[in-house]
Amino acid sequence: MKKEVSIPSGANLTAIYRELVGNYPKFFKMDTLSKLGFLLTEMLVGEEEGRFTPREDRAVLVFSRSGCLANDLNYAKSMEEEFPSPALFVYTLPNIVAGEISIRNKYEGETSAYVLEKYDRPLIDAIVRQAFQDRITRDAIVAWIDCPSDSEWTALAWIETKD
Amino acid sequence: MTKVYCIGKGLVTPLGNTVEEVFEAAREGRSRRLFERDGFSGASFFDRIAIEAAQKAIQGIEITPRTGLVLSTTKGNIEHIGKADISLAASARSIADSIGIKTSPIVVSNACISGIAALLQGVRMIRSGEYDSVVVVGAEVHSDFVHSGFDCLKALSPEPCRPFDKDRRGLNLGEAAAAMVLSAREGEWEISDGVIRNDANHISGPSRTGEGCYKCLRYVMEGVNKEDIAFISVHGTATPYNDEMESIALYRAGLSDIPVNALKGIFGHTLGAAGILEAIVSMAAFEKGIVLPTKGFSEMGVTYPVNVSAKERPAGGKLFVKLLSGFGGVNGAMVFRKGGAQ
User: Fold this and answer.
1) Mean per-residue pLDDT for A18-35?
2) Which of B72, B197, B214, B218 to mutate to test the interface with A (most CBs of A within 10 A)?
């Protein structure tokens, strides 16, 4: 059976990080969306053999409705200050979470962020199947992370394997 | 594998709203990066230009219940943050409704490679056999939000940008909308391959070895004879790091001698529109048998050799390659082949 993991809305992400990882201080610089994607992936691949060996055959495909809206609001607030925060601005793209997952795990394959009108599992499954048209991709970390604010979200992930 | 063709094109840019007009401007080196918004009173300028580009692209093409929509953008309606629903999904819905698309719209928001990523998504949807046609729209409008962000990253050039030049000082932001209709029905241009690869290195700076960009080139070259390449339309943002990275990736892929050009000196960096806009303009250049000049370039400013020129050059070949790279470590490459040439 396919392993599917999730993080309850409003959970204490720092506590989960300390329990699962603890030695990756870049975690604290991430926006909530990236923290969620990072932790979901830890839950999925933490026990995998040969982890951290660079690989090109695993894609990271992140879906949501809200994109990076929570952090967009944080950056917009920082624009009112004398010096807006570049550290916040770099997270104002929905695909940065996929980049963080790639950096952590040395995934050098395809990474993409998709925004859909709602959690539409058949549509997500279709897009993931289509991603396997890539000649190298063998499996994919797939996540639905909808994070309209820093305190409320839906966050689930699974690994899909090419038939 | 099913061949996928571009059967319709549409442009809405500050330099004109037809492919011919925009191509001539690029050829003459005229640059204009922002729209005149005088007289615009609607709720969303972003939605409006995206819809206009899509409407132009679908002229004469039937929208069926199996037509898809893919929207490519980084920030959509961000200029209205805090004042309206700025979700990218809402924009995609408004575009789909305006042109009568019944399937669920898909937004690809993959930083500056969104255009290639969205076209690749469209290609895959056609190949899946589940869609008759897919309208791929790329759009971006200028906003204080994005401007202030690139400004605080010190990525903006105080002067017109200078891709690959030794005095390049950063990018200029631009705005535009561009659309293509993809189908298995034979058209003049085939999108024969496309790929996305991550540097797995840094979220806001390119790999020092051009890793992801090199992997993209290596991937698409599996199906391409080097001598068939008319030119490579590079990303060429004119930031110090991007252009250097591209020179390394091209060198590693054995493509340093292939003519390249960058169009950011004409349009600025149009973010989510860039891939589709620059591909459409490159198609027009190929059809006229030329490599467009790289406006802003004068003296070589990257470590590895790059065959770039400030002047128009003749081009011959069967195809061109489009490259893009972006935040989040993403890189993309796509092959556009004329008339299904083998």
Assistant:
1) 98
2) B197
DSSP letters along A61-91, please? EEEESSTTHHHHHHHHHHTTSSS--HHHHTT
| pTM of the predicted model as reported, rounded to 2 decimal places | 0.98
What the block records as the tokens of B222 is: 């599996």
pLDDT per residue as tens digits for the range B301-317: 999 999 999 999 999 99
- Residue A156 is inside which H or E element, if any? strand A154-161
Closest partner residue to B111 among A93, A117, A129, by Cβ? Answer: A93
What is the token pair recorded at A59? 């894609």
Closest partner residue to A92 (CB to CB) among B92, B149, B198 is B149
The pair of three-digit structure tokens given for residue B25, joined into one six-digit string: 């401007």
Alpha-carbon gap, residue B15 to B17, rounded angstroms: 7
CA distance B159 to B164: 15
Name, in order, each residue with C-beta under 8 angstroms of B242's C-beta and a sequence gap of 6 or more.
B206, B235, B236, B325
Q: Do A108 and B195 touch (CB under 8 A)?
A: no
Instruction: Name the CA dihedral angle for B305, B189, B88, B43, rounded to a multiple of 10 degrees.
Output: 110
Contact B197 A109 (CB under 8 A): yes
CA distance B16 to chain A (A): 29
Nearest residue in chain B measured CA to CA from A60: B198
Position B342 confidence tier, pLDDT thresholds 50, 70, 90: low
| Residue whose pair of structure tokens reads 């009568």 in the numeric block | B100
Nearest-by-CA chain A residue for B202: A103
Predicted pLDDT of residue B339? 84
Test the B interface: residue of A57, A72, A93, A104 with most B CBs within 10 Å: A93
Please, what is the Cα angle at A64 between A60 and A65, to 5 degrees?
160
Classify the complex by whether its ipTM is higher than 0.95, answering yes or no: yes
- What are the residues facing B325 on neighbouring strands? B331
For the segment B275-294, what is each residue's pLDDT rounded down to a tens digit?
999 999 999 999 999 999 99
**Mean pLDDT value across residues B208-233:** 98
Residue B255 has pLDDT above 70, yes or no: yes
CA–CA dist B133, B65 (Å, integer): 10
Closest chain A CA to residue B333 = A110
Contact B197 A108 (CB under 8 A): yes
Q: Is B62 helix (H, G, I), strand (E, B) or coil?
A: coil
What whole-number distance in Å separates Cα of residue B294 and Cα of residue B266? 9
Q: How many CB pairs under 8 A join A and B?
A: 156
CA–CA gap between residue B21 and residue B50 (Å, rounded)? 18
Mean pLDDT confidence for B243-266: 98
Cβ separation B105–A117 shorter than 8 A: yes
B42, exposed or middle or buried, with CB in 10 Å at 0-12, 13-18, 19+? exposed
